[in-house]
UniProtKB/TrEMBL annotation:
All residue ranges annotated as the G domain in the record: 128-182
Pfam families named in the record: MMR_HSR1
Gene Ontology biological-process entries: translation
Main location: cytoplasm
Localisation per UniProt entry: Cytoplasm
Described function: Required for a late step of 50S ribosomal subunit assembly. Has GTPase activity.
GO cellular component: cytoplasm
Similarity-based family: Belongs to the TRAFAC class YlqF/YawG GTPase family. MTG1 subfamily.
Name listed for the protein in its UniProt record: Ribosome biogenesis GTPase A
Organism: Sorangium cellulosum (Polyangium cellulosum)
Length: 298
């Protein structure tokens, strides 16, 4: 499922980010902790070049904690310390969530200071740019750092439409930008992960195909969470059978008793997005072993 959802405001946002990039000291890229690689925009890597970057794994309270820890190590290991000629600048990584606002306010400015040499003199402030894909929590992070609501937030993609600049109590200047994707997402697995996580509007995806991808992955990786959430007596053998069973147990039936697969798919995807299934990661860094006793293939 290759996705092409690139509304006009993203073209404008990309241009604004490119124009502002030279004046920035550090880039804060917000990723979805449940899928750090899929939510890592190649356009951002291209535009930031050698500028240092903080990878913020947001929504970590919804992700598998062991997998998140592995991702933090992997992201920093990909970009070695200064002096070792990293391909894309020094990177530090941090995991945050909506329940850790005070820690985010403390640690993110600290990490910026570690990456940027001290600036002396009038008007010499550290400038940081927050970037990321749609619906990943950039505006929520801005509000957290400012300790008040200055950016509009929502549970759907493309809430932020324009660039805005704020100044923290420390004097650090931060700009928030609309979420952008890349023009065409050819990686089918990444497309599905972005769709399951809510980075792409439901109107731009085949809902049942997305739910089938999610169901198959959950069966392989987190079967015990499915059993607990939907009170299953036994685990269905296929993704389609799981969705049908969810539909029956949630009363998603058409006339004649047939399961409404769209409604059942909606329940599974939104249970995941809201964290009602439990803490789930949609992908793992290279080298991380799959959970014991669970087959890698469907």
């Amino acid at each position: 499922m290759a996705i092409q959802w690139y509304p006009g405001h993203m073209t404008k946002a990309r241009r604004l980010i490119a124009e502002s990039m030279p004046s920035q000291d550090v880039i804060i890229e917000v990723l979805d902790a449940r899928m750090p690689r899929a939510s890592e925009n190649p356009v951002v890597a291209e535009l930031r070049g050698q500028k240092p970057c903080i990878k913020v794994l947001n929504k970590s309270d919804l992700a598998d904690p062991a997998v998140t820890t592995a991702w933090l190590r992997h992201l920093e290991a990909e970009h070695p310390a200064p002096g070792e000629a990293p391909p894309g600048g020094k990177v530090l990584a941090i995991a945050i969530s909506a329940t850790q606002s005070s820690e985010a306010r403390r640690r993110i400015p600290e990490l910026c200071k570690r990456l940027v040499p001290p600036k002396n003199g009038p008007g010499k402030v550290v400038r940081a740019m927050i970037v990321g894909i749609p619906n990943v929590g950039k505006s929520t992070l801005i509000n957290t750092l400012m300790e008040r609501k200055v950016a509009k937030v929502g549970d759907e993609p493309a809430v932020t439409k324009g660039q805005q600049l704020v100044t923290l109590k420390s004097g650090m200047a931060i700009s928030d930008n609309p979420g952008i994707l890349w023009p065409k997402i050819d990686d089918e697995a990444a497309s599905f992960r972005l769709a399951v996580g809510g980075a792409i509007p439901d109107t731009a995806i085949d809902y049942q195909s997305v739910a089938l991808f999610a169901a198959g992955y959950f069966l392989r990786r987190y079967p015990e969470l499915l059993v607990a959430r939907y009170k299953l007596k036994e685990l269905p053998e296929t993704a389609s059978a799981l969705i049908e069973e969810i539909g029956r147990r949630r009363g998603c039936l058409r006339s004649g008793g047939a399961v409404d697969l769209h409604k059942a798919s909606d329940i599974l995807v939104h249970d995941f997005r809201a964290g009602r299934l439990g803490r789930i990661s949609l992908e793992e860094p290279p080298g991380l072993e799959p959970p014991s006793g669970i087959e890698e293939s469907a």
